[in-house]
Amino acid sequence: MSLNTKSITELRKLLVNREITPLEIINDLEQAITANDRKINAYISYDFDQARKAAASADLSLPLGGIPIGIKDNINTIGQPCTCASQILADSYTSPYDATVITKLKAAGAIPLGRMNMDEFAMGSTTANSSIKITNNPHDLSRSPGGSSGGSAAAVAAHTAIATLGSDTGGSIRQPASHCGIIGLKPSYGRVSRYGLVAFASSLDQIGPCSKTVKDAALILNAICGHDEMDATSLRAETPDFTANLTNGIKGLKLGLPKEYFSDQIDPNITKTLNVAIDILKNAGAEIVNISLPHTQYAVATYYIIAPAEASSNLSRFDGIRYGNRAKQNSNLINLYKDSRSQGFGSEVKRRIILGTYALSSGYDHKYYEKAQKVRTLIRNDFTTAFQTVDAILTPVAPTTAPKHGLNTDNPLKEYLADTCTIAANLAGIPAISVPVGKDESNLPIGIQILAPHLGEDIMLQTAHTLEQNL
Ligand code: GLN
């Protein structure tokens, strides 16, 4: 029995019945990682000894007792490296504390195992911006797994992880999940604490699960959500059991299809596959309603002002003094900053810092940053209006399936457009999930995105589960 191929739900059953031990899961994962991660490169690092120690004392009565979970390498886990796939942190930084999600995972009995590859500081949508290694898509090694949580998604798809955590600022959980054929969930903004997540764009970032099943995603969300006084943006919201409504079906639910998301920019094979999934939901009792989200076309431009602006401020802490590797030889303090940052950051991160600094600079902040904030409100209002008539919204996750490596290397703008379907959820702060619904003719996975109102994860998960069960 190779335990690495099983879901959390299946493993928990075996663990509770004492048919297997947590140690056996770690052993099977180690075997799978040793055999396959050379091809996939999903892991930046791992520490099986530490995981085994935790496994030996795992409390199986807890909801995630004995379950190893891979962690994106921008989420602090005490005693482990946290590189953010950047040379500015590589080989030097060890987390002195646990992010709140890690504290919560451990409290639920889970075992953090492995640090997952990502685009440097989560900036990108291919994982090729990692300064450490390039992750390959398990469905076709010549292709990208998507990004920025490409390692988190690829490992789950390759069965070298049971489930993982990713972070999503503009699509970084959902888009790689779609490209790898797994579940990826971005919670409502404020649902999950960002304390201990290395900040990219603080008003957009959320941590969420990558998993094999919708129920597994719900189980992880149960464990990591909830108010945290260490994160001022964390909400004092009810934290229901997200698995409770999964089997309730979707009879009578109204699901909206926004015309702006089903444009000719979407690969027709994707549209075709999504239509099959939509029919399945219809047959399961949902009412399909055509809707409009009129400001959709401005989402990418708005995001690429706001996200770099916040990043330029957040990344100022990596100066070679407070945080980050220090350049060797320096004549003076300014050169020390300059050299440390020039040597430590990759080109996409530099581009974002320059863009963001410009957008915030005196005289231009009104023109760019403030304007972007206003458009952000319009985008959020679009959703508020739509959710007065529908319970959830269905869209593609990405305009194409997994791209070949290096496709848009010379054209960042083209790569930015890969996020057209995912960014609005971050700008609006609403939850969204990617569910695999089929494959294209090259056998590459296709996902559908389900969006729900703020704090409407339960309806979103219910819809996702119904779809998964009927596919
Ligand atoms: N691809 C987007 C970007 O490059 C989103 C990244 C993310 O969600 N972290 O910014």
Provide structural commentary.
The chain is of the alpha/beta class. It has a domain at 301-367. Helix content is 37%, strand content 13%. The chain contains 15 helices and eleven strands. The protein has helices spanning 8-16, 22-40, 48-56, 100-107, 150-157, 174-180, 214-224, 268-283, 299-314, 333-344, 347-360, 366-386, 412-416, 423-428, 457-470; strands at 43-45, 68-72, 111-116, 164-168, 183-186, 206-211, 254-258, 287-291, 392-396, 432-439, 445-451. The protein has an eleven-stranded mixed beta sheet. Strand 7 (254-258), helix 8 (268-283) and strand 8 form a beta-alpha-beta unit. Helix 2 packs antiparallel against helix 3 (48-56), helix 5 runs parallel beside helix 6 (174-180) and helix 9 packs across helix 11 (347-360). The longest helix is centred in the last third of the chain and has 21 residues, at 366-386. The two termini are 26 Å apart. The mean pLDDT is 97. Bound molecules: glutamine (GLN). The site of glutamine (GLN) has 13 residues, from loops.
Which short descriptors sum up this protein?
single chain, 471 residues, alpha/beta, eleven-stranded mixed β-sheet, 15 helices, 11 strands, binds glutamine
Q: Compute the gyration radius: what is it? A: 21 Å
**What's the SSE pattern?**
HHEHEHEHEHEEHEHEHHHHEHHEEH
Compute the number of helices. 15
First and last CA, distance: 26 Å
Total strand count, please?
11
- Unreliable spans: none
Q: Sheet bearing the most strands, described?
A: 11 strands, mixed
The molecules bound to the chains, other than polymers, are: glutamine
Percent helix, as a range, is 25-40%
Overall structural class, as computed from helix and strand content, comes to alpha/beta
Q: Beta-sheet strand percentage?
A: 5-15%
Strand order of the largest sheet: 1-3-2-4-6-5-10-11-9-7-8
Mean pLDDT: 97
Large-scale geometry:
globular
